[in-house]
């Protein structure tokens, strides 16, 4: 059996005045996540908003505990690595069987 983990969070930065400035805060964190952890990262929502953005991070492994541990480390990393406020965090670990409906 395999497990899929999904972590999402909203990054708020109301002081940002341009998309370029926001991207310079968010994109390096997303790239460092991919380099440091065995995860995939996507910028999901708020791409055209100055003050916020939602990140999605996912990983898959045979052990649910490993998936949860990696995503907790991801959460800690995101919280300490950027000039933004992390809100609306969500971490889910699902079995692949549940996702596929088998």
Q: Can you offer a commentary on this structure?
A:
With 102 residues, the chain is of the alpha+beta class. It has one domain (3-100): Alpha-Beta Plaits, CATH 3.30.70.1120. The protein is 40% helix and 36% strand. The chain has 3 helices and 4 strands. It has helices at 19-36, 64-81, 96-100, and strands spanning 3-12, 40-45, 52-61, 85-95. Strands 2-3-1-4 form a 4-stranded antiparallel beta sheet. A hairpin with a 6-residue loop joins strand 2 (40-45) and strand 3 (52-61). The longest helix has 18 residues, at 19-36. The protein is elongated, with a radius of gyration of 14 Å. The protein starts with a strand and ends with a helix.
């Amino acid at each position: 059996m395999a497990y899929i983990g999904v972590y999402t969070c909203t990054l708020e930065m109301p002081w940002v005045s341009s998309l370029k400035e926001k991207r310079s805060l968010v994109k390096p964190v997303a790239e460092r996540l991919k380099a440091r952890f065995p995860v995939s990262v996507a910028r999901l929502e708020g791409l055209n908003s100055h003050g916020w953005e939602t990140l999605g991070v996912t990983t898959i492994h045979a052990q649910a505990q490993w998936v949860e541990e990696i995503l907790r480390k991801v959460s800690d990393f995101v919280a300490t690595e950027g000039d933004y406020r992390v809100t609306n965090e969500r971490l889910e670990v699902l079995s692949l069987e549940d996702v596929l409906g088998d």
